[in-house]
Amino acid sequence: MVSGGNASSLPLVGGASEPTIRELSRPGRRSSKYPKLDVPEVEINHPAIKNEKAPLPEVSEHDLVMHYSRLAHRNFAADLGFYPLGSCTMKYNPRFADYIASLDTYSTTHPATPSKFTQGSLEVLHILEQYLTEITGMDFASFQPPAGASGELTGLLIIKKFLNKKNLPNKRDIIVPDSAHGTNPASAKMAGFNVVEVATDERGMVNIENLRSLVNENTAGLMLTNPNTGGLFEEEILTISEIIHSVGGLLYYDGANLNAIVGVCRPGDMGFDIVHSNLHKTFATPHGGGGPGSGPVAVKGYLKEYLPGPIVQKDNDTFNWYTPKYSIGRMHGYHGNFLVALRALVYMKLLGKEGLDTLGSYAVLNARYLSSKVSNYLPLAFKEPCMHEFVATVKYLKKSHKIKAYDVGKALLDKGFHSPTIYFPLIVEEALMFEPTETQTVETLDDLAENIKLIIEELTAPGVNLNDYPKNLPIGRPNELIPAKHLTVHWGDFELLEFTE
Amino acid sequence: MFVPHSQLDLNVIFEELNISSLEDLFNHIPDELLIMDGLNVEDSLSELEAAKYFEEIGSKNSSNLICFAGGGHYDVYLPPTVKSLTMRPEFMTSYTPYQAEISQGILQVLFEFQSLVCDITEMELANASLYDGATSVAEAISVAINKTKRDNIIISSGFNPNTKEVVNTLIDTTKFNINYIELSNYLFPDDYEFNEDDAAFVVAFPHYEGSAQDLTELVKKAQSKGVITICYVDPSMLGVLKTPGSMGFDIVVAEGQSIGSTLSFGGPTVGWFATKKSLARLVPGRIIGETIDSNHKKAYVMTLRAREQDIRREKASSNICTNQTLNAIGSAIHLSWMGPEGIFQVGYQAIQKASYMKKELKEKGFIIMNESSSLREFLVQTKQPAAKIISKMGAKGFLAGIQYSDNQLLIALTEKRTKDEIDLYVDTFSEVNNG
């Protein structure tokens, strides 16, 4: 029986495949209609113009609407069920924020409109900057970065420019924990730094001795998320800060896990110089199936002039665009993902002081509760109390029954839950990483734990073929080798394949 | 707010955890780090109050300006059908489709997006989106650098200045030379000669200034020196423009706002990225592939994952993780809604309306800088400082265009602009220039 924390009626069912929009196309059908040309028509002879029409599908509007609605029914979503995805903060996204973001006054403005005519939108960014810097303990922010990874790159480019300006071009090492998100080393590499990995100790925190041994005059900075990717608060953060700062390095806060500490403590007070926030995580903007996000970067006052610009500046009662003096340059064609930023501000205003003061506490409360329940059935990777997420391991089940984290994740899908994050952090064998967020009820958390118990019973029973899971969804396990080997990435590609196997 | 727990729920949780208050959760955090009196922010608003609050701030925007600005973002008609399908909560509130079995909806729409982008650009492989047009140009240049191992970038100066700034930020200028080639009479010089140490030839089609040219011969010349050719195309013009693929380009990128997204003050929009299969393993971002499941049923999955940051870490083809999926979904649905005839109308009417407007402006004595080579967008000489004209036109209800230089304005037309709007614009423009 499917439960999924009251999600028993999920519309995700088996049945035949949905054809592609191209397969639904028939010559001469159409959805669109445009007004008749109302200016005198002239002959156009231009070397850049073609004669033939674009090969797009030809479908009626009803067919189009049915097709994409049926596809929507083949998808899990936060509005349908529970995503216990670690490091992703899949909380409820208030509908009201979408309503505000769809108001014409915000959504239909051309980005090149002068600030004189967009005072309202600039004010939104100004107020959001105040909220964000108060929450993170920083001083100034730029909303240019359109996502978290872009925010990371921004932070690293700020570090690079700041150190170059101080004539310290030899500082080329960025230290990254071995438990870090993949974007950390990727961003550091992109910014032209050497990536140096610091180990995690047996408690699950940065190994201070190892860190000391890695830090020297070449250290440019450290990228860290706190709580870390094991869901643990780095209790030695002030020591870490001192170690990095003592050699003139900077401390970068990866805001992926900010939800754990909103209203509890602040990266700025821990010694971080630069912080990026994922508005699509902590501040409840919809994840959109993979994006858009928004990754604003906030800095301490001494780094303001390095921010990507332009940023909003208030002069008397007017809001203006200001390009910081030593700005690293633009990270986005215009002002970042403005409508995402707007949604985040709406969320903050709805929460207000009482909601923001307790946001991190409730996120941690739910994670602590779920970890307590799950630990009855699966060992946790670390003994320390978790913050907003925790890591369990199935390494013993792998030894005894060849059950991998992957299999538990797939079996959970059948039960109406999204899988937790699997195989992350990389330092934990067969890791399952759970992040319930503050918006799930006790029953749902109980139900997830209960289903983990059921799954373990089910999968360890004799004669089970793990590859059969999931069983009741639109598809079973997909063959991942075919597209990687044959590059079936366009709708003409697959039918051309001749399978010999 | 949005926390579901009643006091009864809290009792259950507190008992399970053996705590008596929320503060007890944080005994392990050093005291000096804990926030003592809470955050310095205002009290919460109800939805009714918040609606008023944001409507009032919004009213400080001049939101109903009739849009004659372009530069990459265009006021193309976006039908409610496309908007409402894109905003279906199953798309909008879902996570990245790592779990294919419960993500076939998103995966198939993205696969259709990739296929549609390939079809209208005549390329072989598209990714599932990048942040925007500007960052897509920079990502394409990175691919060219990685492919050729050369360090010279040849890029047309005919790009939105913001795009050039993004390129200058994202490409390490201490390692690579970015050479901006001046346009000659608003076109890329046909006699330009490439070198064996050039990694990329990057050009906009049409150029930022609105002029366009057949780039086939330049592409051939560049490729004969082993240069990767990159086309930044205006996607809403692809119903009438030659395809970048037919001109031979290796990589096509675009600012996809005009297909499926509102103007949004510039974001979120979507970056398109399409290329040839030979470059597949250098492509940044997510790619969706078609396959079969264990029962031979059609299925879609994220593929070529070994390029991505969560697996390759510092050796990844890009650091991109979160992309602009929802806007890519919008692009796919909008393209399907337009169909071959619709996207033709969008491009053709924009060009016709621009022709009409150029003629009207000339009759009022204005000089069009690039009359014959331009299509939907063109440069006009102003008689007073362009910034002043934009300001005065704004007061009269028009977004007049984008300031190109002290005395030149970049004006863009879309199929949405009516003859009446154009006539009124031309009259008003004449008035404020001569007044």
State the total count of DSSP E strands of chain A. 12
Strand order of the largest sheet of chain B: 2-8-7-6-5-3-4
The helix-strand sequence of chain B is HHEHHHEHEHEEHEEEEEHHEHEEEH
CATH class of the domain at 97-351 in chain A: Alpha Beta
Structural class of chain A: alpha/beta
CATH superfamily of the domain at 97-351 in chain A: Type I PLP-dependent aspartate aminotransferase-like (Major domain)
Q: Return the structural class of chain B.
A: alpha/beta
Strand content of chain B: 15-25%
The CATH superfamily title of the largest domain in chain B: Type I PLP-dependent aspartate aminotransferase-like (Major domain)
CA distance, first residue to last residue of chain B: 55 Å
CATH architecture of the largest domain in chain B: 3-Layer(aba) Sandwich
Helix content bin of chain A: 25-40%
The Cα radius of gyration of chain A reads 25 Å
Shape of chain B: globular
Structure notes:
- The complex is a heterodimer of chains A (501) and B (435).
- Chain A has 501 residues and is an alpha/beta fold.
- Helix content of chain A is 33%, strand content 10%.
- Chain A has 14 helices and twelve strands.
- Chain A has a seven-stranded mixed beta sheet, sandwiched between helices. A three-stranded antiparallel beta sheet of chain A has the order 10-12-11, covered by helices on one side. Chain A has a two-stranded antiparallel sheet with strand order 8-9.
- The longest helix of chain A has 37 residues, at 338-374.
- Chain B has 435 residues and is α/β, with parallel strands linked by helices.
- Chain B has two domains: 66-76 and 340-434, Aspartate Aminotransferase, domain 1, CATH 3.90.1150.10; 80-334, Type I PLP-dependent aspartate aminotransferase-like (Major domain) (Aspartate Aminotransferase, domain 2, 3-Layer(aba) Sandwich).
- In chain B, the strands form four sheets. In chain B, strands 2-8-7-6-5-3-4 form a seven-stranded mixed beta sheet, sandwiched between helices. In chain B, strands 11-14-13 form a three-stranded antiparallel beta sheet, with helices on one face. Chain B has a two-stranded parallel ribbon with strand order 1-12.
- In chain B, helix 5 (104-121) runs parallel beside helix 10 (325-363), helix 6 (133-148) crosses helix 7 (161-170) and helix 10 crosses helix 12 (419-434).
- Chain B is globular.
- Classes of the chains: A alpha/beta (501), B alpha/beta (435).
- At the A-B interface, helix 1, helix 2, helix 3, helix 4 and helix 5 of A face helix 1, helix 2, helix 4, helix 5 and strand 2 of B.
